[in-house]
Design goal:
This protein is α/β, with parallel strands linked by helices. It has one domain (about 1-220): Rossmann fold (3-Layer(aba) Sandwich). It contains eight helices and ten strands. The chain has a seven-stranded mixed beta sheet. Strand 2, helix 2 and strand 3 (about 65-70) form a beta-alpha-beta unit.
Length: about 220
């Protein structure tokens, strides 16, 4: 299995080149399918420029076919057909808690598991955290997302045995700094990597590598 967990996607040449190596194709020949549904419930008064920028970076680096696969619009079989004919599945972030429920409701979690055998899967922000292990810290959920852990109906998919905190130390995320994460993730039983927008964590058949420098690690390191 090959996964890329990032904050904001193709923000640097280094991330793009690492993805190319992982896929085993030049960037100009990579075909990509995009899952982009976690932004839908973000309030209308919230600026969406980040989404335009992220999709623009995909267009900048990926030279093959770019497809959008809408889980709400297509049948399960149509989703499977589209994804089996691509090199890479790219899951865009957005609102937390949307994707675990949506994936299980539509059966996409099963399709993703099937595709993970020979496709590279890249997630950004909430699209990355859904791929990792479920963070169980009550304080983490209450203080960062203002939600009680017990109200999280669906857990993340756990394809990899770690997770990330996206957008680490970005201007609008600075209150969730090292001291905060050390406190709320102190007893977390697996590693949680705090990833900046120019960083990514690569999982390649059990081996973990970092792009853009080593991120801060919280919880129990492996």
């Amino acid at each position: 299995m090959k996964f890329v967990l990032a904050s904001q996607g193709f923000t640097t040449d280094e991330i793009a080149e690492k993805v190319s190596k992982l896929v085993g194709k030049s960037l100009s020949n990579i075909n990509i399918s995009i899952i982009n549904e976690a932004y839908i419930v973000i309030p209308g008064n919230k600026d969406k420029r980040w989404l335009i920028q992220e999709l623009g970076n995909i267009e900048k680096y990926i030279g093959g076919t770019i497809d959008f696969v809408n889980l709400r619009a297509y049948t399960k079989e149509e989703v499977r057909k589209r994804l089996l004919n691509t090199d890479m599945i790219y899951i865009v972030g957005g609102k937390q808690f949307i994707l675990p429920n949506l994936f299980k409701e539509t059966g996409f979690d099963e399709i993703l598991k099937e595709c993970s055998k020979d496709k590279v899967i890249m997630g950004t922000s909430a699209g990355a955290t859904v791929l990792g292990k479920q963070i169980e810290s009550v304080k983490y959920w209450e203080e960062r997302y203002q939600v009680e852990k017990e109200k999280i109906k669906d857990k993340t998919l756990g394809f990899v045995d770690f997770n990330i905190v996206p957008h680490y130390m970005r201007e609008d995320h600075k209150k969730w700094n090292k001291e905060f994460l050390e406190e709320v993730l102190r007893d977390n039983p697996f590693p949680v990597y705090a990833v900046k927008d120019n960083q990514a964590v690569i999982y390649d058949e059990g081996k973990i590598d970092f792009v853009g420098g080593n991120p801060e690690c919280f919880g129990k390191d492996m």
